[in-house]
Amino acid sequence: MAVIFDTVELLAVFLLAVEAIKVENLSVLVGGYLRPLISRLNPRITFVDDDSHLSFFERNMVNFFLLGFYVLGFAIIFSAFNVYNIDVIGFLRESAPVYWVLSILGLLIVPFIAGFFPYQLIVWFLEYSVKFLTWVQLRTHTGAVGILGFALFALQFLGRRIWIS
């Protein structure tokens, strides 16, 4: 519960500090750093019919991108096996051949998902950060951000006093 109150307090202090940060500096952060970072991490892919003028790397960019997910997924899975002492080979030796087939299917599908998940979390975090900071920029002039910040700060203050006491 303390983590929730700490998170609310951090958000409240940020909203109260927006007045001191100045909206121009937030627009530099959003427009100058976060949006270009999102466009680099999550580019728009356009397909063309004539790819004869493109290099091998440019023609297969999507495949390399997906291969990166697969390699990252293998690294995550093998790290998890190492941390939790999971013996896959021992499991396969003692199991029926049906589980071998399921293991091979898992070996083909799970690394891709495990590699895609952290990438997608980063992209979602950046996109929602931009949306939140844009909302803060638009509402700062009306005073809604300061009022919301104070309300959240008061809420976490009372919550700590009531819940923790």
Measured distance between first and last alpha carbons: 12 Å
Secondary structure: number of strands:
0
> What's the number of helices?
7
For the biggest sheet, the summary is: none
Class by helix and strand content?
mainly alpha
Determine the strand fraction and express it as a percent band. Answer: under 5%
Q: Order of helices and strands, N to C?
A: HHHHHHH
| Low-confidence blocks of residues | none
Overall 3D shape:
flat
Helix proportion range? over 70%
**What is the typical, i.e. mean, pLDDT?**
87
Rg, Cα atoms, Å = 24 Å
Q: What features would you describe in this structure?
A:
- The chain has helices at 2-21, 23-41, 56-59, 61-83, 88-94, 97-140, 144-164.
- The protein is flat.
- It has seven helices and no strands.
- The relative contact order is 0.17.
- Helix 1 runs antiparallel to helix 7 and helix 4 packs across helix 6.
- The chain has 165 residues and is mostly helical.
